[in-house]
User: What shape does this take?
Amino acid sequence: VEIYNAKLTAGQPAQIRLQTRVFHDRKKVFEGPDRPLDLTQQRGAKEPVFTDAVSLGDNLLPGDYVLQVVVTDGLAKEKRRLATQYVQFEVIE
Assistant: This one.
């Protein structure tokens, strides 16, 4: 995940939070915790990059799914505080 236009202020830690969700047949089948991102290793970066994995287990039924990523920037103006993106994927046998 690459986060564009994050509010990064010198001398103040970023307040970026991330949450992932997975949907199948329009029903939520997974929701990760809403957690803060540690960006201390990315000082000076204009666009923070976050890499992680989501383990969904072995019990997902075959079919189409949607992964949603929700990012909240606590330092941004309210109008631009929340961003969400999704990607479709398929589970096969």
Summary: DSSP finds no helices and five strands in the chain.
